[in-house]
Amino acid sequence: SAVISQKPSRDICQRGTSLTIQCQVDSQVTMMFWYRQQPGQSLTLIATANQGSEATYESGFVIDKFPISRPNLTFSTLTVSNMSPEDSSIYLCSVAIIDTEAFFGQGTRLTVV
Amino acid sequence: DQQVKQNSPSLSVQEGRISILNCDYTNSMFDYFLWYKKYPAEGPTFLISISSIKDKNEDGRFTVFLNKSAKHLSLHIVPSQPGDSAVYFCAAITSGTYKYIFGTGTRLKVLA
Asked: Which end of chain B is more exposed for a tag (fewer CB within 10 A), N or C?
């Protein structure tokens, strides 16, 4: 298993600003992901954070809006840029030790006003 | 296109009785299925999983059943306890892709 620490746990932000969410894992992991859960919706994969290279984004998500860093095998950040109220969601960091079980951080609840 | 569906947004069950949560999928390439439990202000935690080569997997009070022909799986909790009250997400994956597809969740309330 893996212990994932995510911060901040919640934030209220003004529209037009940016927020960077940090994810720290207690062990080195190859596969690291960022998900979004909008109110009443399922968890949706934003991107795979690749160590040492650009993240791989899913359809509907772009690097300019959600820049991701992955400087090493235990840490990643997700930035939500130029925020609007539609970005209000829970953002979750996830790792997969093997591809058949994913572990999640506690999430960051973002409210954009 | 919702590839994984949980059609019941909520479920209430009396303590001690059986809780049955259902999940349907459309993609026949999925070969591994998982259930996650989520409490408020926490991330999802892994509960139980099943490979497509099996039709049942049991872990204590939790049993997952898979019907591949119907593309349907269910999670049974027996007996249900108040601490089981949470949102349960079904997820599916094709091995090797690392791309988990989640359902929208079912909120289970176990009444004491």
From this structure: N
